[in-house]
Amino acid sequence: MTNWVYSFGCGETQSLDIDRDRLGGKGASLAEMARMGLPVPPGLTIISDVCQHFYVHAKGFPDGLKQEIEAGLRAIEAATGRQFGGAETPLLLSVRSGSRVSMPGMMDTVLNLGLNDETVKALAADTGDERFAWDSYRRFIQMYADVVLGLDQEFFEEILEDRMSELGYAYETQLSADELKDIVSEYEKLLDEELGESFPQDPCEQLWGAISAVFSSWTSARATAYRALHDIPFDWGTAVNIQAMVFGNLGNDSATGVAFTRNPSTGEKALYGEFLLNAQGEDVVAGIRTPQSITEAGRIASGAEKPSLEKLMPRAFSELVTVAARLERHYGDLQDMEFTIERGTLWMLQTRNGKRAAGAAMKIAMDMADEGLISRDEAIIRVDPATLDQMLHPTISPDFKANPVGSGLPASPGAVTGEIVFSAEEAISAHAEGRKVILVRTETSPEDIHGMTAAEGVLTTRGGMTSHAAVVARGMGVPCVTGAGNMRVDRFDNILHGVGGVLMHAGDLVTIDGSTGRVLKGAVPTQKPALSDDFQRLMGWADAARRMKVRTNADTPGDARTAREFGAEGIGLCRTEHMFFEGDRIKTMRRMILAEDEAGRRAALDQLLPMQRADFEEIFAIMHGLPVTIRLLDPPLHEFLPKNEEEREEVARALDMETSLLKQRVEALYEFNPMLGHRGCRLAISFPEIAEMQARAIFEAAVAAARLTGEAVVPEIMVPLVSLRSELEYVKGRIDGIAGTVMRESGMTLTYRVGTMIELPRAALRAHEIAEEAAFFSLGTNDLTQTTFGLSRDDAPGFLGAYQKKGILERDPFMSLDFDGVGELMKLATERGRMAKPDLQIGICGEHGGDPISIRFCETLALDYVSCSPFRVPTARLAAAQASIREREDPASGKAVATA
Amino acid sequence: MTNWVYSFGCGETQSLDIDRDRLGGKGASLAEMARMGLPVPPGLTIISDVCQHFYVHAKGFPDGLKQEIEAGLRAIEAATGRQFGGAETPLLLSVRSGSRVSMPGMMDTVLNLGLNDETVKALAADTGDERFAWDSYRRFIQMYADVVLGLDQEFFEEILEDRMSELGYAYETQLSADELKDIVSEYEKLLDEELGESFPQDPCEQLWGAISAVFSSWTSARATAYRALHDIPFDWGTAVNIQAMVFGNLGNDSATGVAFTRNPSTGEKALYGEFLLNAQGEDVVAGIRTPQSITEAGRIASGAEKPSLEKLMPRAFSELVTVAARLERHYGDLQDMEFTIERGTLWMLQTRNGKRAAGAAMKIAMDMADEGLISRDEAIIRVDPATLDQMLHPTISPDFKANPVGSGLPASPGAVTGEIVFSAEEAISAHAEGRKVILVRTETSPEDIHGMTAAEGVLTTRGGMTSHAAVVARGMGVPCVTGAGNMRVDRFDNILHGVGGVLMHAGDLVTIDGSTGRVLKGAVPTQKPALSDDFQRLMGWADAARRMKVRTNADTPGDARTAREFGAEGIGLCRTEHMFFEGDRIKTMRRMILAEDEAGRRAALDQLLPMQRADFEEIFAIMHGLPVTIRLLDPPLHEFLPKNEEEREEVARALDMETSLLKQRVEALYEFNPMLGHRGCRLAISFPEIAEMQARAIFEAAVAAARLTGEAVVPEIMVPLVSLRSELEYVKGRIDGIAGTVMRESGMTLTYRVGTMIELPRAALRAHEIAEEAAFFSLGTNDLTQTTFGLSRDDAPGFLGAYQKKGILERDPFMSLDFDGVGELMKLATERGRMAKPDLQIGICGEHGGDPISIRFCETLALDYVSCSPFRVPTARLAAAQASIREREDPASGKAVATA
């Protein structure tokens, strides 16, 4: 019985006894293919346990490893009829790393191992191709010196290039066997000089050098950084795969290539791939020669002239087609395969699940489910929810004659129009006032992130497809054009210069098309994208699979309509503050805020009532009986007042008020920390008349909408920023009073529910008390994150950059939930709330409600719904379905929060 | 066996079988005195269960009550030889309420119950004093009509006064029996007219009326409000005491009075009290006649001429002395007794623990412990820690010739000097800059509370000893003069007008003496109060009894010195930010903040280093080896920058910088929510060079102070505002680096400890992770309260008033810990921190560290120390001792936090 080394393709495939994690991805796939009887060059895998041993014992190897490897080599020799280091039919080997997950920074491959000054001659004799043998030897020395001995490739390239220019050659293929022999001599001399030792002629020494190099690469700087970033434990280690060489460069009946079982860009169900005739693996990567299409259909589609593999080697091709089909069926997923054809014989070198484009992922998953290859659940899991909202953004109407004022890269899809703003701060404050803006920057930095969230779109004049702006905007699903080099931002005068001398100022309307990279002046007609059948079907499957409902955060009838089209099952958060900024309302709002007494406030509120009622009526009508959660006025009142001198004078005139008095009133409302100030339910407690007006507007609108649609409206009124049970009790009392009045006045019985945001740590901790007054909880994770971390979302961008640079914080907790801190409070809130009231409805309405990782966490808490912005609704539907499936199959994957 | 009614003084004292809570305080003391064989008029107690029944059953009485009361009355009749309603020797009764705790708003007493048109004659015959009998009847009708029938006393007073002025009498005593009969007739006529029914002649009807009135008074508005305020459960209810009348108004061998077993003002061990000759209880309360001293010594001390009880009735006096001594010994505390002497015979009507002045409380407790009456633990418990710091404030030097510019009431003791500020905001910002100010207001309101905390003293021109300013300042231990009516605040020009036309402007120095009420212009020499021996001994006992250490929050050498004198055992919080405001340092600090790059910052920091080092050196030397916890720079940098245009220009000139550039830099540092912004350890992560400079100053100072004092200094460096373990890890790494450098440079081995504030909810939740990096935790309950409630301490005063008015919040959570919310996080932090590191040192440094209720809670968490401001140190020592004793005796009294 063996301990460390497992053979494959040498008769019995020993490595099947060992679990995949210890064999590594590559070793496991080779073993599996060998077991299936597919043509795999015989080989052995040194399992990852040896890597652990290597590091625990100061880079030493375990007892018995040597004997086991020798036994393995003898099996390969037996299977191939060749001898490792043999002077007649030498066995050559490839040595490759292979850890549990694919990881950059690991040693890749050493090919042709076993060649030396003797065996190279035997290889020449054996293959009848002296040039081939010496070229292989040259490549081997170069590769080995690089990855095992640590000598820079450039030295060798220099020798090679010098010799070729002396000879006047353009391609390496022009070098003769003798010329290659000379080059090998020069290589060996170089090694002597640089390392003070000669190239190892002993194949066993070569082999142990390569094995050590693989293990050593586990601690390369790049691998270490990658592990840290992805939480990969050090002690997983890597396996080593040692395999008999096969040659794709033994003439025009040999080839090497890569194939996908389906098209990874489009998802089309057809073998797809490229190959090079008479070449070794690294030639494909080097990109010196243009690869040829494997299939004839692929060749025609690409308009290429060089013949396809299908045409050139029909027998090997047909074998590849069969192998591909078997592998895809076996693994139940798109396969990405490496193969070599040696003198007409197909050999499989690797197979793994293939990466694919977002659209292709959906098509492949749906097709495979239709073909019965995978279950519907599996198809749902296979699609990344984050990619969905990219498919939902509007595009510019095709019949519109666009005359661009600039163009850049299509960094994040979607066409949007907004006012130009030149700073993140302006974007945030404009957003707070309900204005739609495009953030225009030379380039963006982490400081701009919250401005980007607040903007409809982002335009930069510098940076590529992977610039900060592009990466972040794609992540957010915000349309973005980057690197519009024919435009210029003048921050001094706040002007955007477009082509043809066009000038655009802050506040001017601009349209960007993140799908094409075009920039257009003014507003432009857009149209919604046609959603594919696959998309609609996937949503249907997701809806059937998920437990949590998906609602939307919608403040306007427009948002509500969009969200319903995207499948929202209600409104989880309707913020009322934006309504007070619209048109002339702000004037009345200011009159209310600046009133001397309650009577004055009530007079202004009476004017606001019909406007609020109309807002709610329209939203109720659109939602047609679906639940609508309306939050009472939340921001501090000073947010509605003029900020600068000029505005103050204007407002004073409009309100017929002394400017000095107005200034005094504005200053009296000043707060050091508005986030922790006079807002939320604190307003309703100081000025109950405001909450009463809002409650009246809601109830009267519910009566009207119910009469209009015939569907009973069950409004949910949400009291924000509660930390004490008594706060909710007080405000609920006022709301109940108004409900009674409206029912009497209308003669209609209303069902309604009063609940609260859980957005402060104290509310989470005292959830059992608060639940006694609440019909529902909505977890307000934005504010809960702010207070749990003591971190202002608006101010954090100024220093969180340093945090991420120094590795202190991995994820932005405003993007994805902090499971450990905020998550524990959410857990306490749900547990304690339900303890007090088992039928308590609990949802989430923070931005995290549209984030798949956070949605997975919400499923572990068994929330009733998540609520997110309209364009995120499909993402949330899919993510909620995945969460349901994963919670069923693997509850631990939701990252359970230990309450210690 | 009886269920509802228990007799005392009628042979067997039944009421001893029943617990004190159901008998009420008065009933219990009467039963106890009867059991001791003291002279108590026989009576019965209706237990408080009947009150519950009364409310549960719509003001009905339980079955059997009537029979039980009748049986009780028969026992009283038997004991007294009188008959209730009897025409010959009528039994008269007093009816008094008596709940578990003394409570305002309850019905007090109905005396002489049982008198009617018949029994009044019998009483006259029986006592041989017709005038007495009719006067008693008149009083009874008047009292009964008031408290039982609800008819206003004024009606009766009017009749009485009219008749007396007709007769030309000055005193009621001049009225003859016949004249009193006429008045009784007029009273009865009045009742007929006002109530439409005649005065009840049936003694039983009178009795049931009085019982109902007692129970009904349980829901009087005042009683209800009081219960709500003090969390007294409604269902406690009140008992009713019914007792045979004894008369202090049966001639000059009768008297009624109140006595204390010791002097409640000074604590002196001598009977103390007052009496009126020939009078009934309510005459003492009415204050028409001046009471006489009970003891001869008391008479002499007060310079009164009227003879003492000791002289007038030596036998009754000597009996009272004996009774008083027995009662004090029995109850082990100062007794407050009511007594009546009827024709030379002493009757005890009530005894209870007496209220006493703060200084007296200490003396009495110490004396009683010395006398062996109570244990030392009990003596410690008996002194209210909140009263201690009033004894510690400085007074004006007696040899200073004070020329007051105003005078008011001595509302809160202590003499202090500071700059005049006219608003709470100015007080707060001046305090933040380390300036000492006196807050001068016409009167204060809850909005001013945080300004009052920030001020050295408070002066108001309106309001009395119980005005808002007076009450709050006393609670805080802040010196205060209220109602300085000869001064005037002109808020328009910000001028304080003093007597003699003196004008004082904002920023001028003023001194107030809260012990005398004087206001003085400029600074005035003050001296420390001499601490009494009792004070010092009590502190010694407390130190022996307490488990928790007491440290101080001290930022300056002066604070450190004061605190050591008051017994501080270390510094729990040394804030470093104030140090940067001093003198010229602010200029260098600003240069550091405004530097373009790290090099510029380091240059300025190099200049700050020697100043910081000198600060720390002095503090270390003063603390002489005691632990000193120094917090790294905490506030956001913009707090150090100029706030207005004028200041900005000045600073720009001083720093040789363009004003526009400076303005730009200041604006760039602006934060929406500074409390949640770029501060605490976030500064150390963005600009590690600042933390490094501070660490170097600390270590170099520790080396120097150790060489100076010969005591090793073990500095504790505290990293503020940590929410992630990685933050602490990063900053600790920098500190450790500097420690190594300083040790190499100085050739001295330093022991030091790095720890963190736990002041954010996330830090409390992740305490087990953070503890792995921390040598100690300091619970920063100010910020923890802010973040747990989402409540800015600076902004809350604007709306917390409405909260308290509406009964939504009982205690200000910034004054006394919120056990339920903040307390649970503290509990989690200590449990989880110790789980990870059992020897983790944990203290508290928020303002709660000086609040007795909060200190009690800290003991339940077994914290290692509390830290508070220097003047609070004695309070904290005593409170910590009480907490230790109570935790031993009654762990539940600390209010265990349920983790649900």
UniProtKB/TrEMBL annotation, chains A, B:
Keyword Methyltransferase: no
Span of domain PEP-utilising enzyme mobile: 436-517
Every PEP-utilising enzyme C-terminal domain range: 532-883
Cofactor: Mg(2+)
Keyword NADP set for record: no
Active site: 468, 845
Residues engaged in binding Mg(2+): 759, 783
Keyword entries, A-Z: ATP-binding, Kinase, Magnesium, Metal-binding, Nucleotide-binding, Pyruvate, Transferase
EC number: 2.7.9.1
One GO MF term: kinase activity
Pfam families: PEP-utilizers (PF00391), PEP-utilizers_C (PF02896), PPDK_N (PF01326)
Limits of the Pyruvate phosphate dikinase AMP/ATP-binding domain: 65-295, 311-371
UniProt binding sites for substrate: 575, 631, 759, 780-783
Catalytic reaction(s) noted: pyruvate + phosphate + ATP = phosphoenolpyruvate + AMP + diphosphate + H(+)
Domain of life: Bacteria
Gene3D superfamilies registered for this protein in UniProt: 1.20.80.30, ATP-grasp fold, A domain, ATP-grasp fold, B domain, Phosphoenolpyruvate-binding domains, Phosphohistidine domain, Pyruvate Phosphate Dikinase, domain 2
Broadest EC class assigned to this enzyme: transferase
Protein family per UniProt: Belongs to the PEP-utilizing enzyme family.
The protein's role, per its UniProt record: Catalyzes the reversible phosphorylation of pyruvate and phosphate.
Protein name listed in UniProt: Pyruvate, phosphate dikinase
Source organism: Martelella mediterranea
Lineage, highest ranks first: Bacteria, Pseudomonadati, Pseudomonadota, Alphaproteobacteria, Hyphomicrobiales
